[in-house]
Description:
- It comes from Haloferula sargassicola.
- InterPro entries: Plipid/glycerol_acylTrfase (IPR002123).
- This is Bifunctional protein Aas.
- There is one protein chain.
- The protein is α/β, with parallel strands linked by helices.
- Helix content is 36%, strand content 15%.
- It has a single domain, classed as Glycerol-3-phosphate (1)-acyltransferase.
- It contains seven helices and seven strands; from the N terminus they run H-E-E-H-E-H-E-H-E-H-E-H-E-H.
- The strands form two sheets. It has a five-stranded mixed beta sheet. The chain has a two-stranded parallel sheet with strand order 3-4.
- Helix 4 packs parallel to helix 5 and helix 5 crosses helix 7.
- The mean pLDDT is 90.
Amino acid sequence: xxxxxxxxxxxxxRSAFRSLFKLRVKHKExxxxxxxxxxxxxxxxxxxxxxxxxxxxxxxxxLARKTLFRGVTKWLYPQWNAVPVDQEKPDMSxxxxxxxxxxxxxxxLVFPEGARTLDGELGEAQPGVGLIAAKAGVPVQPIRIRGxxxxxxxxSGRMRLARxxxxxxPPIDLKAEGLAGGKDKDAYKKIADRLMAAIAEL
Length: 202
């Protein structure tokens, strides 16, 4: 079930992605639609969070830069399940909030690169996503986005018509792969690199 304010945004973006950007989703049958899931994706554009949100028929939790919570969005973003993150001074509070959401049974979207790409190439994964995955102990769903950068590049305020494609990867069970036991930065970085590699393979 979706709350009406979430549903209204979901409907708006879903219609836009289908009509304006001719969204194509490959391997949608791989989506984990029940229980807590850590969704990890490459980051091309501001369009990415609502784009991935429209793949599901119920609500999920997103991360958003703390600086975006101003004016009307200070009220709206929390209604859309956005968790503020301070990119300039990252701390454990945001990571703990994400882990708490996952342990409460929610689906959460995280971008391992931490920032939108400038040139379209995949960036390096940050160890924080490895920490989240290790501590939460939930399945991980890798997703690859293509075309969102062409539709709304970083640094541009003008939308462009471009074909967007999303590829859903097979779920990852870190415990089964022997990656869930580490409790230090090196272990978290290894997990983060594994997740980024899964995205790159799509």
